[in-house]
Please model this.
Amino acid sequence: MDGQQYLFLDFEFTMPDRSARNRGFYPEIIEVGIVVVADEKVQATFSSYVKPVKFPQLTDRCKTFLNIEQEDVDQGISFSELVTLLRQYDKQMNSTVVTWGNMDMKVLRKSCELAKIAYPFTGEERDLSLEYKRFFGDRNQTGLWKAVEEYGKKGTGRHHRALDDAQTTYNIFKLVEKDKQYLIKPAPTTIGERVDFSKLLNRINTVN
Model:
């Protein structure tokens, strides 16, 4: 990493049932996980539930899939508080936001538009799943936990918990960045590095 700040970010969203789709449902953020990294060290983490605005009642499908209760989000921070927090992180220093997939940023932008709140990030945004796909030449994008398993590792904590997924994204980021170093063309070797002169001398002495 190059000395700037990285924000590894993950959101969990509301999920529709059939009736919700019929009345213009759109996903809202209900959980946030952030891992703040600078100077190749984790500087801070943050986790919180977030209260949805347009569709405050979670569907049974959402509660089951995310293993979440209505009381959890009811006691969470507001969306405006979330955006304020993200803006504060962004202002600390030059920040790059890293997510697994593009859904997180899409939902955040849409939610900011609907709430008429300024988008909090000003720096680079990186979709690590797309980088992973291109790096390994995969046909399709790989799920977060499948990707970490392909490295022979395990995800942190529990899948679909925002902070655990943010931490897992950071872990994969480190692995991919390390692998990229192997693709950097090394400096030309000298003749001394290409030839083992000790073996050559041994062979000459044997002949003599």
Observations:
- Residues 5-207 form a domain with the Nucleotidyltransferase; domain 5 fold (CATH 3.30.420.10).
- The chain has ten helices and five strands.
